[in-house]
Design a protein that fits this description.
The protein starts with a helix and ends with a helix. The longest helix is centred in the middle third of the chain and has 27 residues. The chain is built from 4 helices and no strands. The chain has one domain: 23S rRNA-intervening sequence (de novo design (two linked rop proteins)). By secondary structure, it is mostly helical. α2 packs antiparallel against α3 and α3 runs antiparallel to α4.
Length: 115
C-alpha cells in the first residue's frame, strides 16, 4: 500500500486540506466554505481506500468515480476561496495544482479500469 501512488498522494493532499482548514478557521475566520473544502478534500482519499477494498471491478470503478467527483468539488471550493481573497495566489496555485494532479490520476485509472 505504501507504494500506491494515488493512495499516498490523496493522503498527503488530505493532510494539506486539513491544515488549510485549520488556517482558514484560525487566521481568516472563515467557517462555511472551509468546512465544505474539508469534507470534499478528505473524502477523495477515503473513497480511494474504499475502492481498493472493492468487492468487484465495478465497485472499484464506482468508488474511484466518487473520488473524482469529490476532487472536482474540492477544486471548486479552492477556486471560490481564492476568488473571495481567502487564499492568495501562491496558496491557490499550490493547492489547485495538487488537486488537478489527483483529477488526472483518477481519470487515467478509471479509464484504464474500464478497458
Amino acid at each position: 500500500m505504501k507504494d500506491n501512488l494515488i493512495v499516498s498522494k490523496s493522503k498527503k493532499f488530505a493532510i494539506r486540506i486539513i491544515r488549510l482548514y485549520q488556517y482558514l478557521l484560525s487566521e481568516k475566520k472563515e467557517y462555511i466554505l472551509s468546512k465544505q473544502l474539508l469534507r470534499s478534500g478528505t473524502s477523495i482519499g477515503a473513497n480511494i481506500k474504499e475502492a481498493i477494498q472493492g468487492q468487484s471491478k465495478k465497485d472499484f470503478t464506482s468508488k474511484l468515480q466518487i473520488s473524482l467527483k469529490e476532487a472536482s468539488e474540492t477544486q471548486y471550493w479552492i477556486e471560490l476561496l481564492h476568488e473571495t481573497d481567502y487564499l492568495d495566489n501562491t496558496q491557490f496555485e499550490s493547492m489547485n495544482a495538487d488537486c488537478i494532479e489527483l483529477i488526472k490520476l483518477l481519470t487515467a485509472i478509471i479509464k484504464q479500469s474500464k478497458e
